[in-house]
Amino acid sequence: MSPYRSVFVLETDLPVDCDINRLPSRDIVFEFDLDENEKGLIARDVRLVHVY
To answer: Domain boundaries in the chain?
Structure first.
């Protein structure tokens, strides 16, 4: 079983310095808090950590 799971985030919840045209990308690292609702995991307080 994989330790990775999908997380939902709204475009409006992404940091302003994030270029959404580059997503999805393994070159962009985010840090966020997790919440869970009946539909699954949700990213909250999303922060851009690094762009390779």
So the answer is: 11-51
